[in-house]
Amino acid sequence: MSRSAGNLSRWGRIFPLSRAVRYREFRINRAVYLGTGVLMVLPWIVQLANNSWVWNRLTKQVLQSTIFGYVNGALAFSVWDVMLAGFLGVAVWWNDRSRGRLGLTLEGPVTRREALLAKFWMTWGTIAATSLLNGILLVVTVVLSGLNGWAGPVLVKTLLLLTVETVVAAATIAFGAAMGSAIFAAITTAIVGVIPLVAASVVTHFAYPPWPARPQPWLAALMNALSRLSPFTFDYGTVSLSVSHSALFLLGSVLLACFALRWWDRAPQERFHDPVFFPALWYAVYAFLAVLSAFVTAALIQPLVFPPTRETWQFVAEFAAFAVIEWFMWRAIMRRIGRTALRWGPDA
Amino acid sequence: MTPAIEMRGVSKRFRGRTALDQVEWLVAEGSIHGLIGANGAGKTTLLRLALGLLWPDDGAIHVLGETLRRENAALRQRVHYVASGRPLVAGFRVGEWTRYTGLLYHRWDAALCQKLLKAMEIPVETPIGHLSTGMQTSLQLAVALASRPQLLLLDEPTNGLDVVVKRQILQFIIDMAAQEGTTVVIATHNIEDVERMADTVSVLYRGRFVMQGELDGIKSHMHRLQVVLDEWPQALARDPRLTHVQRRGNVALVTVEGPLEPLMEAFRAAGAVLVEPIEMDLTEVFRAILEKEGYSRESLSWESL
User: Fold this and answer.
1) Which residues have CB under 8 Å from B103's CB, separation 6+?
2) Among A52-61, B87-96, B265-274, which stretch is predicted with the lowest mean pLDDT?
3) Is position A156 within any domain?
C-alpha cells in the first residue's frame, strides 16, 4: 500500500489506515459514531433493566418471553438497529461532506481509498461494538431467565443482526461513494433492499393461484429464498438458516465495499456536488421513476372498466408500455432540471 | 532542468463547457510563477489539474517529474495548494488542525508552524469556525509553509489579508523559495503581487494562454505612446501593431505590441508633433493584452448603463 497520508502504525498490517486519517475521521464523525452506538444499545439496556428491576415470580417468564421472541424472529429493537446502521452509513458521508470539508481533505496527501476505508472500518467498528454489547445483554438475560440452553441461538441471532446491519451500512456507504446526495444514497439502499421482497411478492402471486388451482411448492420455496435475500426480512426460521444468511450478508458487505472502492476511485472530483457522480446512473434514476409512475398509471386505469376484466398479463403489458413511455418522459424532465442551477439532473 | 509543472495539450470541460483548451504550460523548477487572467479564465482549474485533483479530458501533466494519474495523493506530500475564501473545517480547533496536518505530512516542521501562528497571532485553542476569513487564509498559509512543500500552488492567497500580514507573508514565501528552491505558482487578480514576486508570468484568457514568458519580457512586449498628430495616414491607422488607440482631438494614446522604435519612427514620418513613450506597469500591460483579445467590458460604465 502506498504511504501517502503520514506513516502507517504497526497496526497498519491489519488496519490499513494512517494515524492522520484515523484521527481526522474520528474527530469529524465522533458524535455520529458515538451517538448512533448509544442509540443502538440504549433500548436493549432499558428493556433488560425494566424487565428485571423488580424481581418477582413473573420476572423469569417475562425475560424468557424476550429470549423466545428474539430467537424466533420477533423484531423487538432489531428494526431500530438496522435503521440506525443505515443512518450511520449516510450520516458519515453527509457530515464529512458538509462540516468535515472532505473535498479540502482530499486536496492533501490523503488517498480517496483511505478516506473511504476509514468510514467502512469505523462504521463497522461501531456496529460490531454495539452488537457485542447487545449480545452480552441478551446472554445476561438468558442467564437470569434460566434458559441456559438458549445462549447459542441468541448469539447466532445476534450474529445475523450484526451482518444485516453491516450489509445495510455497507450499502449506504457504497452508494454514498457513487452519489453526492445523501437522500439519493438512502433511497437507493432502500430500493436495493426492497427489490427481493417485491420479486418475492410477484412470485407469491403465481405460487398461490386462486382456488381450485393447486399451490406450486417450488414457487413457494423460491418466494421464501427471494424474500430472505433482503436485509429487511428478519424471520429466518432456523438457526442454520440464520448462519447461512449471516455468511451471505457478510459476503454482500465485502462485495459492496469492493464496489464502493471502485466507484469512489473513479468519481470525477468536479461531480462531488452532483446527486450522482456518473452520468450513466441517471438512466437508473429514470428507470426507477418510470417503474413507479407506470405502476400507478396502470393501476389507475383499472377502475375505468367495470366490472374489472383484466387478467394479470394485461396489467403487466400495460405496465410495460407505460414504463417505456414514462422512461422517456422522466428523461426529458430530468434533463430540463439538470439545465437549471439546481443541478438535480444530468448535464447533457 | 526538469520543469516543476509541465502540461501538454491539456483540455478540461465542465458539463459540456470548455474550461481549458489545449493548454501548453511550463513552470521552471525553483521559480516564482505568476498566473493571471480575467474572471473565469481557468486559473483555478489549471491549479487543481496541477494538483492532480481534476483529471484532464485530453493531454498529459507532469509535476515534479511524476506523471499525474487518477490517484496522486503521494505526490501531494510535496505539493501544497492554498486557496483563500474557503472555510476550513469549522469543527476543529487550530491546534487540532495543526496536529492533523502534522500527522499527515512527512516533512512537517512543527516549530515553524508554531512560530508562524504566533507571529500571525492565531491562538491554537480557537475553534477554526471563529476565525475571520483572513485569519483562516493565514492559517492555511502557515500550514502550507510548515509542510515544507517543493511546489506551492497559491490561488488568490492574499484575499482577506491585511496589508501588513500580506506583505510579510509574501516576503516569507519569496525568501523560502530563494533558500529552499521551492517552486511557487501564484494565481491572483492582485497583479502588483505578481509584479513584486514573479520571475515568469502566464496570462490565461478563456481557457488558453495568450502570453507566457519572463516578467520583464512581457512588460517590454507592450508599450504605450502619447502621440500628437493632426491627420492619421490610413496605413498607420490600420497597423496591426497598434492594439488600441484612444483619440481626443489630435492627441492619441496608443497601445503598441512589439518593438517600439520602428513605430515611433513611423509616427514621426507621418508628421507627429509629439511621440512620447509612457511607462506601463504590469496591470496596464495585462489590461492591454486582454483588450487585444476583445475583453474590455467597456459597456460596464456609468454612461453606457
Assistant:
1) A6, A18, A19, A20, A23
2) A52-61
3) yes
* Beta carbons of B106 and A348 less than 8 Å apart: no
Q: In 3D, which of A291, A301, A293, A262 has the Cα closest to residue A278?
A: A262
What pLDDT, on the 0 to 100 scale, is given for residue A5? Answer: 55
What's the full length of chain A, in residues? Answer: 348
- Mutate one of A1, A2, A3, A4 to test the B interface: name it (highest B CB count within 10 A): A4
State the CATH class of domain B3-217: alpha beta
Q: Tell me how many residue pairs between chain A and chain B have CB atoms under 8 A apart.
A: 85
Summarize pLDDT for A23-81 with one digit per residue, the tens: 999 999 999 999 999 999 999 899 888 888 777 778 888 888 888 888 877 766 888 99
* Residue B9: CB atoms within 10 Å: 12
Alpha-carbon distance B207 to A137, whole Å? 64
Tell me if A23 and B48 make a contact (CB, 8 A cut-off): no
Q: Chain-wide mean pLDDT for chain A?
A: 87
Query: Does A149 share its domain with A18?
Result: yes
Total count of domains within chain A = 2
B3-217 against B221-292: fold identical:
no
Q: What is the pLDDT of residues B39-61, one digit of tens each?
A: 889 999 999 999 999 999 999 99
Q: Give pLDDT, residue A75.
A: 67
Q: Are residues A113 and A143 in the same domain?
A: yes
Choose the mutation target among B100, B101, B139 for the interface with A, i.e. most A CBs under 10 Å: B100
How many whole angstroms separate alpha carbon A30 and alpha carbon B96? 14
The CATH fold assigned to B221-292 is Alpha-Beta Plaits (3.30.70)
Verify that A255 and A334 share a domain, yes or no: no
DSSP A217: H
Cell readout for B163 is: 496589508
Q: Give the range of the structural domain holding residue A324, as residue numbers without chain letter.
A: 279-348
Q: What is the ipTM of this complex?
A: 0.86
- Domain for residue A4, yes or no? no
Whether residue A212 is preceded by a cis peptide bond, meaning omega within 30 degrees of 0, is yes
At A97 the pLDDT is 92
Residues A36 and A101 in one domain: yes
